[in-house]
Structures are given as C-alpha cells and as structure tokens.
C-alpha cells in the first residue's frame, strides 16, 4: 500500500506518519508546505526509513499536486494539511480559506483525475458549532460553524462529500474532537498552557474559562484514522471523540497541579470573538463499525504530554522563536495579556 499524507509535518499528521512507518510496511510520502506549524524535527525517528519520503509543496499548487498524485499513484490520500488554529483564522482568514478550501479542492480534483482508490479527509467536530448540554453531535447533525477556521473545514467536508456523490470518488470523512499530546504547536490550549506554566508565565484564559471541549489523545485519533482508512465505508462521515468533556478551567487546574505551579498564574483575558461555548460529539458509529475505543485517559495523557514538554524545552524554544513572537503579541498583546 502507498499512502500520500498531506500535512505530515504537523502535530497530528506527524503522529500518524510515525505510527504508520513504524507499524506497517506501507510506503508513505509526506507532502507538506512547512508553514510555521510544519516541522521536520517531528519526523526525526522515521526520516531515514526507506519506506518514508518527504516532498515539500503546497496542496493548493495544482501542478505539484498533479505531478505527485499522477506520477506516484498512491492507493490512498490521507488529508491532514490545513491552517488549523481558530485564533489565527480570526486574525488572518485568507491563508485559512486558501489552504483549507482551495487546497482540499485541488487534492480532490487530482484524486478524481487519477482515480485514487481512497481519500480520507480529516476534519473536526468544530463544524457542528456550539451545542447546549446534553446535546451531542452525530454525523447527521446540522453544520453550524462559527469561525473562519471551522467554516472552511465545513466547506471542505461538503466539497469532499460532493466528490463522492457526484464523481464516486471513494471519500471517507472524519471529524475529531480537540487533540492533545506531544509535538503540538504551543498556540493551542494545552501546549500553550504547559509551556507557559513551565516557565512561570501567565496563562491567558479567554472569558470565564467555562467553555467545554472533548479531549482526545493524538495517538487514539491516529488509530481511529487508520481503522477508517482500512475499514471505513465510502461516502461516510465518522465522529472521533475522546469521551472526556471538560471545562477549560478544569484542564488548566489539572495541568497546574501536575506541573506543581500555582493557580495564581491564571490570567483572565477578553474572550475570543464568536467563541463556541461547548463541543460534544458521539463516536457511537465509529465504535460500532470498527471496535475502536480511546485507550489513553485524560489524566494519563495529560501527564505524558507534560513529561514530553518538560523533556523538549529546546523544541519549544525553537518553534516559538521568530514569527511566533509576532503572533503572540498580536493575539495576546491586544487582550492586555503579558507578552511572552
Ligand atoms: P497543524 O497546524 O499542527 O499542522 C498542519 C500541517 O499542515 C503543517 O505541517 C503545515 O505545514 C501543513 N500545511 C499547512 N498548509 C499547507 C498547504 N497549503 N500545503 C501543504 N501543507 C500545508 O495541524 P494539526 O493540529 O495537526 O491538524 C491536522 C488536521 O486535523 C487539520 O486538518 C485539522 O483541521 C484537523 N483537526 C485538528 C484537531 C486538533 O485538535 N488539532 C482536531 C480535529 C481535527
Ligand atoms: P484551542 O486549543 O484554540 O482549540 P479550539 O478553539 O479549536 O477548540 O482552544 C481550546 C479552548 O481553550 C477554547 O475554548 C479556547 C480556550 N483558550 C484559552 O482560553 N486561552 C488560550 O490562550 C487558548 C489558545 C485557548
């Protein structure tokens, strides 16, 4: 089996590439633009394996995508590449729309032209928008995205689905909840709070901190994607949740306890515009059809993640240099939070 992974230098894509290269004999090509979020250091453990290769490129570049899909003829495309951060999508929506919508369109077109036998489109529970308790999104729930990021993902999901309905392209769509684990760029909640706490810096909490997210350990997500790559039904959508809903303040409380840092590091800052209050989803369909279940519980996963960040201070320092500082200033300086 040959698989083309897009965005394999990012957080989840690199975990998936590491898992596939170390556990299977499949050939893997990682196609990634290496934006601020892409980091080949994440693939150090597999980069010399003969079954793995890296190709730098933009999924919105029709020529490059066609040359690769038409020339290499993968058996499957697993599409992770995206601009993945809500706050950045609020500050600068243009690259989000270009990559998430136009980039997905370009890949779908190449897959259609070259009759790729499998197209797994990686999406998010954020497309369902905010849900009042006790509601949980199922795969047929209405789409109600709130941010440029989630709207672009909802649009790309619909486009992917249309390629199945119209052209019979064998598409499978996955919608996962919030991921956490090693190698996550320290702009998302958990790695940002760990990195700041370990350096005794303030932890910027948006609004009242009572927003609820469902937390999924990244390796559990990757195992679900592998199961669906092999056994998911064509044209179907599958939710992937960690079955662990927590308010942000509780996540931060646990994280401070595990790092041995005081609650006084919490700094309440003005809320994110359009902030979704609560995400919740049911993974019943995935469990029923594949037998998958999350294996890493939140306490254990959080402890492992903190250990990883403690042991990788130099990695954090490198990814936070340069452009990250400008982003931090733009996003948090305007909220009156102490710059990093
Ligand atoms: P990430 O930001 O860590 O990585 C994104 C990767 O895509 C980077 O390596 C980047 O260089 C690459 N990329 C960006 N634009 C590109 C382009 N135009 N062409 C080629 N490569 C490009 O993202 P992540 O957190 O690993 O998320 C991966 C996927 O999973 C995304 O599709 C995201 O929407 C989805 N998802 C993420 C989460 C989460 O909690 N992080 C949850 C559910 C779904
Ligand atoms: P985030 O990791 O950006 O994921 P998403 O918005 O895609 O769910 O944020 C998770 C939650 O944490 C969300 O409710 C916003 C909140 N948050 C903060 O309170 N402060 C921060 O600095 C960040 C990055 C997020």
In short:
This protein has 340 residues and is α/β, with parallel strands linked by helices. Helices cover 43% and strands 16% of the residues.
Q: Can you describe this structure?
A:
The chain is an alpha/beta fold. The protein has a domain at 2-180 and 216-240: Rossmann fold (3-Layer(aba) Sandwich), CATH 3.40.50. The protein has twelve helices and twelve strands. The strands form three sheets. The chain has a seven-stranded parallel sheet, with helices on both faces. The protein has a three-stranded mixed sheet with strand order 7-9-11. The chain has a two-stranded parallel ribbon with strand order 8-12. The protein is globular, with a radius of gyration of 19 Å. Residues 6-7, 9-13, 32-35, 37-38, 58-60, 80-84, 99, 103, 122, 124, 153, 176, 178-179, 185 line the site of nicotinamide-adenine-dinucleotide.
Topology:
Elements: E1 2-6, H1 11-23, E2 27-32, E3 52-56, H2 62-72, E4 76-79, H3 86-91, H4 93-113, E5 119-124, H5 148-167, E6 171-176, E7 178-180, H6 189-198, E8 203-206, E9 212-217, H7 218-231, E10 237-240, E11 245-247, H8 248-259, E12 266-269, H9 284-290, H10 298-311, H11 313-319, H12 323-333
Parallel strand pairs: 1-2, 1-4, 2-3, 4-5, 5-6, 6-10, 7-9, 8-12
Antiparallel strand pairs: 9-11
The structure holds nicotinamide-adenine-dinucleotide and thymidine-5'-diphosphate.
